[in-house]
Design goal:
148 residues, alpha+beta, six-stranded antiparallel sheet, 10 strands, globular, signal
Length: 148
Amino acid sequence: MRHFISFFFGFLSFLPVLTQACLVYYATFPFDNDKPFVGKIIDNGIETCSINMTYNEHWRWQALENEKDWEREEWAWKHWHFTCTKKLWQGKLKGNNTDRTYAAELGVGLRGVTYHAHGEKFWFNPDTVEDVAGERWVYSKKLWCAGK
């Protein structure tokens, strides 16, 4: 019985780690406009959103979107949109929220990430490092993760 009690309390000490929220964002943007910008968002250990698009592909899409709005006098920079899982969030939502979908987008210049999940909207700036040898920019961010 004594071993069971010590095992039980040992198990309880791990529960905060198991229930700890953790959001991880990682992306690379090559200096070459024909190579893809690749990124992903991992929410509590599950990859919920990803992106794989070259700068040139985004530029063409952006130009087409601007052509649709002929009355606009100025060019409108468009966000980079992620592809997100269609699986719905199964956890408890805060307040009167009913949105269980996932969505994510990057702002102009890839400096700000907006992430919709759990019926809430999160916004953050990733840490950015220039990898000259790898000829790319590396973006990363960890939010609410244990040890961070």
